[in-house]
Amino acid sequence: MSDLSGRYLEKTIELLARIREEEGEALDAAASIIADAVEQGHCIFAFGCTHSSLPIQDIVYRAGGLMLVNPIFGPGISALDVQPASISSALERLQGLAKVILDSSPAKEGDALILVSVSGRNAVPVELAAAAKERGLKVIGVTSREYSEAVSSRHPSGKKMHDYADVVLDNKAPKGDAVLTDPGVPQKFTPVSGVTSTALLQALITATIEALLSRGITPPVFLAGNVDGSGDYNARLLKENRDRIFYV
Question: Fewer C-beta within 10 Å: the chain N or C terminus?
Fold first, then answer.
């Protein structure tokens, strides 16, 4: 293995260890919010812009994952599928877009919303968090406290996404996200938030499953599609929970 690859893995492991040691209380609180929503018959939604949508996608329609997580997609900002890619960055800063996105979703009072934004400074995640709170949703924010606190808000309110979150999960990414340095490169390189945010969300789903089990609720979990018998098994659970699943 190259020296730089080894350093990257060591840094990632270090940050994951910090998450394990420092985010347990917040993870339990966030899992309780989601378990409350499930127990009370409400729904779970999740949203992130561009690269912050990738951790969201990892917990939706996922082998071994909770069936009840519904993605909210915003045109042009939910993946890097527009050209030029810079359009997605401009859209993430566009005021008013978040309301359109939320209005177009089935999210309602009592539901839980997971929001991922590493810096938490742009208009869409800020306004989406604020609008969700106004409508009576519980907001779980996944962000980097270090990054978010080191930059100014791009929203006229001066607020960041985490200001509206009921619970904040810190992915521990540094300002700028990149974690490696070398004399031959004039800036830090190789981002880490994709790994740590995904790990946080998978830990959150795991904690939610545990919380549901403690309440005597059997959580609907996908059986991997390439395992024999999965088609009938998953179809049955999807049908049983069709009133809370919007992605099929």
Answer: N
Contacts of 8 (CB under 8 A, 6+ apart): 179, 180, 190, 192
Give pTM, 2 decimals: 0.96
Q: How far apart are CA 66 and CA 222, in angstroms?
A: 7
Structure tokens at 55: 């951790």
CA distance 120 to 92: 11
Q: Residue 23 — φ and ψ, nearest 5°?
A: -105, 5
Report the C-alpha gap between 50 and 16 in whole angstroms. Answer: 23
pLDDT at 75: 87
Q: Residues, the chain, total?
A: 248
Reported as a single tens digit per residue, the pLDDT across 77-116 is 887 778 888 888 889 999 999 999 999 999 999 999 999 9
Beta bridge partners of 44: 69, 112
- How many alpha carbons lie under 13 Å from residue 83 in its C-beta half-sphere? 0
Residue type, 61: Y
Quote the strand ranges of the chain, DSSP E: 44-48, 69-71, 112-116, 138-143, 167-170, 178-180, 189-191
DSSP, res 29: H
Q: What are 136's two structure tokens?
A: 């009576």
Phi and psi, residue 143, nearest 5°: -155, 180
Q: What are the start-end ranges of the E strands in 83-166? A: 112-116, 138-143
Q: Cα–Cα distance between 79 and 160 in angstroms, integer? A: 22
Q: Provide the 3-class DSSP secondary structure of residue 58.
A: coil
The span from the CA of 42 to the CA of 19, in Å, is: 28
Taking a C-beta distance cutoff of 8 angstroms, is the pair 70, 43 a contact? yes
